[in-house]
Every structure is written in C-alpha cells, then in structure tokens.
C-alpha cells in the first residue's frame, strides 16, 4: 500500500510536440456565493477551468490541483472579481512546471429574482436569469466579463399598423354615413377592436459587459434591471387579469422591431458600462425563422 503510484503526466513525454491553448475541465458543479448589492446567496454553478500548455514536451496538466482550488472557492462566503483573479493566479503558479502563463474560468448559473406583478398588490413570483461570467488571466492581466439573458415580449410595429388599418376600414364600412355618439363608438370598439390583431412573440436579449478586476461585486442584478427597464416589456411571473391587461398596455405602447430592441439596450447601457455587446432574438410567430440583431462597441 506504500508503493508509489504511477504518474504518467509527469514521467512521460508527449510524442506529438504541439502547444495547446487551453486544457482543463468543464461541467464542474459547485455551490457559489457571488458578491452582489442585495447579498450573496448560494448558487448552483457549472464551471469550466483551464490553463494553457505551451511546453510541447509535457504530456498532461494537473487537473486535481485545479479542482481543489475551485472547491476552496466554493467555500467562500462572498466571491468577488478579486477572488477570481486570485484563483487564476494560483492555477498559473501550480502549473509552472508546464510553462503555463495563462488561465481561464467560465462560470454559468441561473440567478433567481423575485418580481412583483404589474398591478395586483402583494402578488409576486420568481424569475430565473441565465448568467455567464468569464475570467481570463494572460501574462498577469485579467479580462473579466459578465453576460446576462433577459426574456421580453415584442409586438411588431408593421403588424400593428396593418391591424389598425383593417380595423379603421371595418369601422368605416360599418358606420358609413351615420351620426355617431361616443357611447356607440365605445360599444363598437369593445366588440370589434380585435377585428385584426398584430403578432407578438417571446423574445430574448443577451447582454455582455466588461467588468473591472478590482470591483467589489459583479453588478448582475443592476445590469438585468437596466436591460429590462429599457425594453419595458419583460415577461411576467404571477399574473391576474389586471396584470395581463397592464402587460397588454405595455406591449401596445412599446412596439418593437428587433432593431428597436437592440438600440434601446445599447442606449441604456451607454453610460456606466464598457465593452458592451448586445444580441437580441425575436422568436417569430409569423415566420418559422427568427429575427436577430447584434451590436458591439462603445
């Protein structure tokens, strides 16, 4: 039992002399508490962790060392960008015998937030937001980004205009030459205003921003909130009829092409954020294909 166990990665040399950009693990499940303004609750995270392998003679890296570092990270009360940089530095140091000078972490999870109904007092529900944090340390320089995904409703401006035209035409045909009162028009609208309806669909906005290496938190919920506020039609959780009516009103007042949605988000994040990338997708109800828009910069 005291016999030394074989270590192939250490004692054998690779027959193919090729450097590798990233080597490591993916799909590592850990609990993680991230530093956020509203507190840090444990999250179920899936992590990728890798280092580069520039030494062409080294057969394999030390994956168990990386795993133990991630286990240590999972036991911290509140993880900050500074903590991620420290782990990446440890990953590089622990692989000095491999010539390693770069390390990478990708952390994915869903952040739960409790959202109030639009109109009904005391009514609320939970919504999950997919999040991806990527941290790369290259020659001692940290590049850190956070990406969030927000679902919203989009009503087509063209479809709305076409529907209004049909309703107006139907109205003129119905009341040709008649003298009308407000009450008569109101009664007609309650029955016939949906003679034609515009198409709308669930839509998805993916937003990525750069983060500072020395910040005390990741600012995920403020980023989600600002994106939802820009769109104005975020999908709801618990709803009663009054909330559904309020949602219909928001959709009618915020008609959006995919281009409109991307520009709204871009403008909303133009102050206070760097390295912004916006990708929006409208899961069309008119077509079997989707409408998409993407913008990067500022």
Q: How widely separated are the two ends? A: 61 Å
Radius of gyration: 27 Å
User: What pattern of helices and strands is seen along the backbone?
Assistant: HEEHHEEEHHEHHHEE
Structural class: alpha+beta
Specify the biggest β-sheet: 8 strands, antiparallel
Any guess at the CATH architecture of the largest domain?
A: Roll
CATH superfamily of the largest domain: Urate Oxidase
| Fraction in helix | 25-40%
State the name of the first-level CATH class of the largest domain.
Answer: Alpha Beta
Uncertain residue segments: none
**What integer is the average pLDDT?**
93
Please provide the count of β strands: 8
Described by the principal axes of the CA atoms, the overall outline is elongated
Whole-number tally of structural domains: 2
Major β-sheet strand ordering: 1-2-3-4-5-6-7-8
CATH topology of the largest domain: the name is: Urate Oxidase
Sheet-strand content, in percent, reads 25-35%
Number of helices: 8
